[in-house]
Amino acid sequence: MDGESFAIRFGYGLPAGGSGLGADDLAARTWPGVRLAELAPVALAYRAAKKAEDDAAVREAQRAVDALALRGAKAIFARALGSDDPYRERLVAFWADHFTVAPRNRTERALPGALVDEAIRPHVTGRFADMLKAVTTHPAMLIYLNQEASFGPSSPKGKRQKKGLNENLARELIELHTLGVGAGYTQADVRELAELLTGLTVSPQEGFVFDKNRAEPGAEMVLGVTYSGNGAAPILQALDDLAARPETAAHLAQKLAVHFVADDPDEGLVADLAARFRDTDGDLAEVAQALVAHPLAGTGTKARQPLDFLVASLRALGVGPEFILGLEPRPFRRLILDPLEAMGQPFQQAPGPDGWPEREADWITPQGLAARIDWAMQAPERLVRPLPDPRALLSTALGARAGEKLAWAVGAAESARDGVGLVLASPEFNRR
Amino acid sequence: MDRRIFLKGLGAVGCSAAAHPLMTTLTLAAAPGENRLAVIILRGAMDGLDVVQPRGDRDLAAARPGVLAKAQDLDGFFALHEGLSGLMPLWQAGELAFVHATSTPYRDKRSHFDGQDLLEAGTGTDLAPAAQRDGWLNRLLGVLPGATSETAWAVGREAMPILTGAAPAESWAPDQDLAVSAPARALLEQVYAEDALFHQASATAFGLAGMEEGEGQDTDMIVDFVAERLRGPARIAAFSLTGWDTHKGQERAIRKPLDRLQRAVLRLKDGARPEVWGKTVVLAMTEFGRTVRQNGSGGTDHGTGGAMLVAGGAVRGGKVLGRWPGLAEADLYDRRDLMPTSDVRDWAAQAMAGLFGLDRSVLEGTVFPKLAMTTSDKLIR
User: Fold this and answer.
1) Which domains does chain B have, with CATH numbers?
2) Which end of chain B has fewer CB atoms at under 10 Å, N or C?
3) Which among A171, A365, A412 has the least Cβ separation from residue B187?
4) Which of B157, B194, B297 sits opposite A163 (nearest CB)?
5) Rounded to a whole number, what is the distance in angstroms from the first to the last CA of chain B?
6) pLDDT tens for each residue of B228-281
7) Are A64 and A56 in contact (CB under 8 A)?
8) Domain coverage including residue A154
9) What's the angle, vertex CA B49, arms to CA B45 and CA B55, rounded to 5?
10) What is the share, in percent, of chain A residues with pLDDT greater than 90?
11) What angle do CA B133, B139, B141 make, to 5 degrees?
């Protein structure tokens, strides 16, 4: 695959960044995000202020939460725009979507970013099993899928507080995170896994903790394997086992192919990726390399999702990470976050634990396209002055992909504003 | 919303609906009858046992010591969650019915996403969910005589697979307005002409831009839009109401979606006005019900049998339909869920037979392939 195609399909578009997948996560160090350890004291302060009905303190805590959330959001854009290794950023985004969490309220707004930086990024060129364990024990996931509300019915706390199981995390672990809904598991497996997971919870001060007093006593059998013993060890063992299942390899291969190559990918491509996953014991760098190197990697078409569309537009316009980092909260919202929402992808607020949809028709809807056109026509002149010559932008942004009709229309545009808008609103630019 | 401020002073060219070819060339040579069907997909799995409570079942109280809300008696056996008490006048007027212990053929995996796919595809379980490519309202559209692209509308930001398919249908969501100069728009139309996906999406986007006005919640705007369309040439509309996945603290969590549902039904009735409301049926259906027993965190988990709401001036209401299977453990599905005793498609098929005069063979062959209609209760006046 040539450099231009690689940049468009596996990166954030032209001008091209790096040419492969690097081993080092330089971007995370250059543009740091938000850590759970920074977030927890602020959330605690907010809770305390609420309880004390101290309005001034509530407002102050809210401002602190908002500042962290803003920093986390900006870090994502800065990395996507500035990284020499855009494929790594796209893979991070893919796995962040695979392990979707969304904030339920204002104090949780920076949580999804913390999950990504602490549990996903470190493993994006590592082993899937390690990512799975890191994500499943991260407070953001434990909160989002209600694990902190699940008690073994026969556990000391379950009995005393008359509380019981919550199946949410167990179900999505099997259905979404590992085996996939098409695999041959039963309600009994979900139930047993839910019992096994009891004990995983969150403490506002310490983050993830294993609370043996809410763990269901006795052994559990999940997918034919019996897990017994104390503490989190049997849970981690079960996660290792789930990660190693062939159904998991097939499910993840299908998702990767759908995300990067085509809404309905070739079965051979999926099979080859699954085989690579199994052969390397779930080595995600190997699988990512195999995806790019595959003869079918350049076939099919995909719509750029709204966030990717915005990043690709900013790259094409020459807007760098410093510009984004320097934006005040309000213009950042008006230029980036509000348009994302209008395009159908409110930032880090996927509608459910299955993440964002993938099909072209899910994104190129009347309202979604209207918002893209809107942004393409209006935002560029607020970002770069003077606007680039639309004919030059056409070649910077699309290279050999610009169609004849588009080239003609761009030349025929009345103003640079319209011409730039046409390039960014074109079908060519909205696909990858 | 802030986007409006962003647009202010940028010379937005209003693209009025009347100027759009799709809308001005509209003719209704053979209108598909006068009756209307609105389908609301309740995404997230509504807890039918909390909404239409089987108070007469002696096993209810033990299964739900903390979750059941106050309710108003319906028929001596069932009672309506107080969050829907605003619908009682409709019940008394015979314009509201419920079907209980009903479900799609979906079983066992209890995945929202597959459950909704099957509900909207309207097929049996013989097709893999991923192989579903069109929705049953779209197939209805295909067999409706005289249907045009204006006959059916998918409304709201959510994708509506129920209306996706070969027959042309329109879609609209609040908050779409375009600030694009007339010449740029003309050029864009030429660029999009070669690409079916972009062409279609932009035609509606350009055509409807500037239609929405004013403030208000999304749901209200969606419902108002649906009512306005149904007063005009539209005969079918579909939209979603979300927020039903009450795993935790259901007592509180279910109130917001219930309020939205109640508001939607009442506002639709108002907006449709008596003449159109009298010819309308609203079906509010969900992907599956929830567990009979409440879970450890005051919520309920994914289940099987659930409830469906049927409203409208064309409904023979005032009753809770469907055979009640009972809540004793031995009567449950998988010893945990309400046992479905009917197929939701059966009720929808019956409504469509009554509304659009469709033959049973069309309903069982095209709209709901392989469904065997069995229900005999009359749903439509």
Assistant:
1) 31-174+214-367 (3.40.720), 176-211 (no CATH)
2) N
3) A412
4) B297
5) 43
6) 999 988 999 999 888 898 988 999 999 989 999 999 999 999 999 999 999 999
7) no
8) 144-244
9) 170
10) 90
11) 135
